[in-house]
Amino acid sequence: MMSNDKKSASLRNLGIWLMLMAYFIALAASPASASPGCEEAPKSELVVNVKDKGARGDGQTDDTAAIQAAIDEVAGTEGTVFVPNGTYMIDAVGKRGLHLGNDMTFKLSVRATLKAITNSSKRYSVLRISGVSNVTVVGGTLEGEREQHMGKSGEWGMGIRMDRGADNITISGVTARNMWGDGFYVRGAKNVTLCGVIADYNRRQGLSIVDADGVVVKDSVFKNTRGTRPSAGIDIEPNEKQAITNVRIQSSRFFDNAGSGIQIAGKKGRVSNIEITHNEFRGNRPLLVENAPAVVASAICNNRQLASQAAPSGGLNVFADPINIIVHQNDCREGRDMRFEVNRQKRKRSP
What we know:
The protein is mainly β. The chain contains 2 helices and 28 strands.
């Protein structure tokens, strides 16, 4: 017969297991994969369906020109380009790809996919938001070609690239996956909001922020990033003479990335006013902060990490499963919590 102590331990373990099951069921059922409604309604009633411009969406036809024709008609009108269900093949290399214009919404249906045509290029962008303002992208999936990529060099194959002074950009409920580089890329842009997005199995980063003033990431998922360094969920890393400021990352999830969930690297440029709160991390180091003295501990708080630890052994003849635990980070008023954050300064080598 089982002793009372063993019965109590079994009941405790059962209780923990049931609590975790309920937690993960709620996590899976939450609406992170759907748009949480951060986009505003278009101001114009104009809607142009890409199929009216000749797009096929059959997974074989190059639909780049047809979709670009719809974009060109809507740009500047505050109207909407609509992409119905289907798989639309996009020539994303170099200056090709799809270039969104000012004052427009680009809306994909739930089962609409823009898929990059297989190539050997070091760089590509399925969607490019470059030097324009007041642009919204809603829903659907952007699919890279990392498994079929014919080249071996480069790491700049992007799902959505925002650059060259892009301003007031909203990305809502979009999935970017299987990219040769990053799911989402921000460089030289300001007032960018990403909400309800998913970055999955991208080769370099889920999201790279290289040069920006004002980026909000919320209610999003960054997972399974791997392939080339740093393989972070989000990488906040300016290049020479660039700066990143006013970034807020909240209520998002970072699961099973090969690198850190969030990496902040300020060796080449200044990083300041970064707020990271109420996020969840699992299967990766939560945070790595390097050479970023302006990133303060009081703004990195109230996060939590899902981890596991070995259960106490009941003897040689008792099998013990690992116990899943949830580690909560300190409240913002309590200072730095080094269980979550690795913060280091790299010294320059002496000549």
